């Protein structure tokens, strides 16, 4: 469940993010964060159970922001194929260029791998829930075929996380043309039709159209 934050919470989370980007996670003390936020350590403990919870909340909020922007892209792009292409491209691009990736690697490279593996569960879980909701909405609108959306959502969320850890292997996702080609040939069909035809082939589901997919939330 997504947590809601008031103005003080947001200041604390902003201060946490700023400090992490400045010195890394281990060197980001609650005293430093409290000073940046203009609050006391006691206030932080009242709102977050401790540093680990604060880091998790900061990461979760950033993921939420990325997914929110992805929803905006999806709802302002015409045609289901283009919606999938543009939103997936945006998310995959952010897995390489978000400051929590680039800046953390710059200031604390020894922490980066541990951060995105140990805390990867939160990232993947949020991604699965978001993508599942998007796919369910598309199915309800009749622009995606009917299939179980969760395995597809998990595959895509795990792929994005894998790209975060290994950005270049077969496909160079830093090359936008290559990334778009991969999305068009692999991700668009996967999201439209699932992993394969069920009994009777693809005709068993709702035919895909040219509508617009929302977040389902």
From TrEMBL:
Residues 6-66 form the HTH tetR-type domain. Gene3D superfamilies: Tetracycline Repressor, domain 2. Keywords: DNA-binding. Signal peptide: none annotated. Residues 29-48 bind DNA. It holds the Pfam family TetR_N. One of its GO terms (molecular function) is transcription cis-regulatory region binding. This is TetR family transcriptional regulator.
């Amino acid at each position: 469940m997504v947590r809601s934050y008031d103005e003080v919470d947001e200041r604390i989370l902003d201060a946490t993010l700023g400090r992490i980007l400045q010195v890394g996670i281990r060197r980001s003390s609650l005293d430093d964060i409290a000073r940046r936020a203009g609050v006391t350590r006691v206030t932080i403990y009242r709102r977050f159970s401790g540093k680990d919870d604060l880091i998790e909340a900061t990461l979760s909020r950033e993921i939420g922001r990325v997914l929110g922007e992805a929803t905006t892209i999806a709802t302002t792009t015409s045609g289901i194929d283009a919606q999938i292409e543009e939103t997936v491209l945006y998310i995959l691009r952010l897995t390489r260029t978000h400051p929590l990736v680039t800046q953390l690697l710059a200031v604390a490279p020894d922490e980066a791998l541990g951060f995105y593996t140990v805390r990867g569960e939160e990232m993947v879980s949020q991604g699965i829930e978001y993508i599942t909701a998007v796919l369910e909405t598309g199915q309800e609108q009749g622009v995606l075929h009917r299939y179980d959306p969760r395995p597809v959502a998990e595959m895509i969320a795990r792929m994005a996380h894998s790209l975060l850890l290994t950005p270049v292997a077969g496909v160079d996702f830093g090359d936008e043309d290559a990334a778009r080609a991969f999305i068009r040939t692999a991700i668009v069909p996967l999201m439209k039709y699932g992993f394969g035809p069920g009994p009777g082939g693809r005709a068993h589901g709702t035919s895909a159209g040219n509508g617009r997919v929302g977040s389902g939330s």
